[in-house]
TrEMBL record, chains A, B:
Substrate binds at residue 113. Belongs to the tRNA pseudouridine synthase TruA family. This is tRNA pseudouridine synthase A. The gene is truA. It catalyses: uridine(38/39/40) in tRNA = pseudouridine(38/39/40) in tRNA. Keywords: Isomerase, tRNA processing. One of its GO terms (molecular function) is tRNA pseudouridine(38-40) synthase activity. It comes from Desulfocucumis palustris.
Length: 247, 247
């Protein structure tokens, strides 16, 4: 087995998420990558993705791996070859040979997501595909203080979308920072893994604090309650970007 | 006459430029703005734009003015009212009452454009709508030195697209800077006015220097020649953005 790891970036706007949805005809990132691999290698190649980003979510550092089989292309030529076949909203940033036991999903030790809010009285049409527009002024300092309360190993049941069975709802958040850069507020969160919609629900809950509707301690109360209905809304996908997967 | 000035931002990707193209059915920025004004005011309002940005060109600070006629809306409410009617890729940033003799185009004393190049071995799918991707490494220092040679009052015939009659091809460039921010090279140019495709041809000519195909002095030779065929290519529209119009 020749195991190859790719780092991939995409504008997720027009895709129905990362994961292939067989038989639906809906475009997904995985499908486009596998199509390009098949065109280039002449083989059917199935790949494994690190994170199943949702419909409309972007990535700057998604990681996938696959068995190259009989495909004899030098690894360092894979990015250019694939980029010439991929749609313009997906790009392979790098390719590397990895040991046989490397698994994009199970070998990951940390993931970093950024949620971007455009916080100004009027929208910015040039940023609308990559930010969530919030016209009311947000207190990013309060959001930062509130976010810090989630750092550590906890049961994040309150921040998980319903209806998706998982073995455990315990995850570790290594860091959560909220910072303002001009009109853009970035929520950066790094953890060992995330439950379904977890980052978007955390962002929605921090928004309640930023708007002054809740005190920072509210985050701790929601976390302890383990009740989804006490947390904030699931904010829209276009603000979310998978920044990095660490191994 | 109640003369109102608007500052407008847009993602020009899906538009056939700023200027209304009557009878063609092609979407333009001007048409969308006039449609929103008509919906809100109940009157037919014609507006004047400061710069006729081309198909696919963006703006963060386009300026327009119009006679509000009998429309009685308070000026400060215009942005919110218009933004609720405009497509998501156009936004009114501000509205102000201006003297009767204010004319968005003729009263302008300076305009600033930015041309953005994404300069990295692999493309960035999240920036593709707003940058021109150049995979070969560019010497932005040489480009900056070359650009400085165009500053001043000159006949810019060599940097003007053919087939568009104008009274004079003399313009003044107040400043031209080329700087790198990570993988993005920004060409910022401020002048009293620009000929058709002038900024994109200047960028294409600077690219020759950045690629090492020409020395910085090439810019001066092209300028003096007044011959379009000696300048570089007209680079694609998506890298161009009208940043500011000064009065």
């Amino acid at each position: 087995m020749r195991n190859i790891k790719l780092t991939v970036a995409y504008d997720g706007t027009r895709y129905h998420g990362f994961q292939e949805q067989r038989g639906t005809g809906l475009p997904t990132i995985q499908e486009e990558l596998e199509k390009a691999l098949q065109l280039l290698s002449g083989q059917v190649i199935r790949l494994i993705g690190a994170g199943r980003t949702d419909s409309g979510v972007h990535a700057r550092g998604q990681v996938v791996n696959f068995d190259a089989g009989d495909w004899r292309i030098p690894t360092d030529r894979i990015p250019l070859a694939m980029n010439s076949r991929l749609p313009v909203d997906i790009a392979v940033l790098s390719a590397r040979d990895v040991p046989e036991d490397f698994h994009a999903r199970f070998s990951a030790v940390a993931k970093t997501y950024i949620y971007s809010i455009y916080n100004s009285r009027v929208p910015d049409p040039l940023l609308r595909r990559f930010t969530y527009f919030v016209p009311r002024m947000l207190d990013h300092g309060a959001m930062d203080g509130a976010g810090a309360m989630l750092v550590g190993r906890h049961d994040f049941s309150a921040f998980k979308a319903e209806g998706t069975p998982v073995k455990s709802t315990v995850r570790t958040i290594y860091g959560l920072n909220v910072g303002r850069h001009g009109n853009i507020i970035k929520i950066t969160v790094r953890g060992d893994g995330f439950l379904y919609n977890m980052v978007r629900i955390i962002a929605g809950t921090l928004l309640e604090v930023g708007l002054g509707k809740q005190s920072p301690e509210y985050l701790l109360a929601v976390l302890k309650s383990k009740r989804r209905e006490l947390a904030g809304a699931t904010v829209p996908p276009q603000g979310l970007c998978l920044l990095e997967v660490e191994y």
